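tokens incoming
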């Protein structure tokens, strides 16, 4: 597949904060393995991505700067599919890497496929088995896996999903590169004095949470805050609809988006986490923090199976009751507040680099 008379060139395309967090360890490992590596940012979440790069002290090689306010997934796809092909034609990387399930990842995969460039998919094989939840992420990841030449699964269960759909060839159970980044960052953060009140870290941003579900979530969070003995820390997503629904939440400490080091520090100091995010379902358990997931289904059943993560939906009474259980039942909290590692040991990026080194040789 490769020509090792020169250093093989691998290009990574990313556009969102989670992609940047999870692909920076891969970039470091690839360069350490002797590859020529370039990183392209599409700008899908430009400000949030810039925070991540600043936190790690590095920057993308190319910024396409395609972000526009209130873009739909179709508009993001169209912009990337227009801007990326000339870059691929000029540079002709030996492989293109994408991560996860974003519109950036799908568009980059399509562009590389049309250019005849093989695609490696990091965090392949996650499935909710419902194309409408989460949307458009579930459809995106299924489509990317169908095209990818290499699929790097975060867990045995994700690899089993891929084997059922495509066969077992070119699938590597690498672990989750987000755990690589998390453990490295957590080791750099000095201990913080415990907050005066138990802190609950809350993040809400998914498209399917907007509208009536968001109103229900806000009511559930208000009931928790009304206890008076907790602090809800709520970093707001830039989405205007999220801000309109949650910026005035009574009893919550609402902030601008946290940088990645700040978010890791917030997880370390949290009593528990309430979120509709995928990444926090992976990260918080590794730090021993119970997670309540504001969804009806999750594509991360491995985390649920540990008992540390629980899917609770968006009904206000259940949100308040599940949080109260963790706050008021010491035995329940102790059983769920323990570090678990269903997504690897922090060496996923090294495994990916080694596999690509063998493949491109």
């Amino acid at each position: 597949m490769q020509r090792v008379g020169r250093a093989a060139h691998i290009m990574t395309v990313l556009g969102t904060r989670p992609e940047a967090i999870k692909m920076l360890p891969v970039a470091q490992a690839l360069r350490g393995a002797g590859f020529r590596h370039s990183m392209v940012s599409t700008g899908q979440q430009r400000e949030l991505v810039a925070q991540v790069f600043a936190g790690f002290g590095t920057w993308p090689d190319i910024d396409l700067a395609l972000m526009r306010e209130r873009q739909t997934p179709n508009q993001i796809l169209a912009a990337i599919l227009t801007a990326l092909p000339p870059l691929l034609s000029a540079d002709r990387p030996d492989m293109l890497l994408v991560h996860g399930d974003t519109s950036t990842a799908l568009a980059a995969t399509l562009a590389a496929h049309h250019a005849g460039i093989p695609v490696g998919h990091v965090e392949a094989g996650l499935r909710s088995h419902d194309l409408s939840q989460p949307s458009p992420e579930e459809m995106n990841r299924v489509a990317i896996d169908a095209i990818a030449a290499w699929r790097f699964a975060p867990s045995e269960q994700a690899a089993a999903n891929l084997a059922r759909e495509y066969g077992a060839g070119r699938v590597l159970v690498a672990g989750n590169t987000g755990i690589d980044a998390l453990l490295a960052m957590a080791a750099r953060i000095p201990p913080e004095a415990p907050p005066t009140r138990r802190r609950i870290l809350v993040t809400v941003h998914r498209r399917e949470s907007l509208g009536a579900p968001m109103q229900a979530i806000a009511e559930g969070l208000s009931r928790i805050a009304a206890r008076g003995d907790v602090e809800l820390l709520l970093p707001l997503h830039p989405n205007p609809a999220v801000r309109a629904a949650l910026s005035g939440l009574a009893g919550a400490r609402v902030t601008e988006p946290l940088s990645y080091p700040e978010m890791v520090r917030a997880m370390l100091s949290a009593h528990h986490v309430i979120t509709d995010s995928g990444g926090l379902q992976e990260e918080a358990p590794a730090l021993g923090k119970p997670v309540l997931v504001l969804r009806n289904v999750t594509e991360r059943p491995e985390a649920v199976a540990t008992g540390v993560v629980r899917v609770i939906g968006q009904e206000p009474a259940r949100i308040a009751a599940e949080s109260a259980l963790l706050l008021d039942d010491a035995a329940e909290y102790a059983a769920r507040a323990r570090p678990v590692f269903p997504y690897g040991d922090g060496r996923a990026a090294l495994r990916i680099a080694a596999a690509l080194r063998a493949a491109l040789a």
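note: Confidence is low (pLDDT under 50) at residues 1-5.
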